[in-house]
Amino acid sequence: MNIADSPQQAILVRPRIYIGDHISIGPGKVDLLRRIGETRSIAAAARSLEIPYKRAWLLLDALNQALGRPVVETSSGGKGGGGATLTPLGRQLVICYGALEERLNAESTAELEALRALVATP
């Protein structure tokens, strides 16, 4: 997906999608969902993204409210410890957003290179 050789040179399209007046899906929420899927923990996902735990909960709550269904299921701690997993809706959201992001970047190579040329340093 990257059109650059190194992360420092990377230039990517990271879309924010608005569906109606109440649903906003963007890179922050999707990155949080991806990390929850990887770590199986909201706290660990928040730490890895360097955002406060409360912010992570607010992002998840905003998605849950907007979509009318949960994107993450949680289990309480205890002897085996708690955890979090993506619901089928949460997994589908990550997949669809990822496909859109990949396609936008693949289809906009010329425009992204033109933007890179505008900010290139001598």
From TrEMBL:
Protein name: LysR family transcriptional regulator
Originating organism: Rugamonas aquatica
Residue ranges of every copy of the HTH lysR-type domain listed in the record: 32-91
Gene3D superfamilies, alphabetized: Winged helix-like DNA-binding domain superfamily/Winged helix DNA-binding domain
Pfam families cross-referenced by the UniProt entry: HTH_1
Molecular function GO terms recorded: DNA-binding transcription factor activity
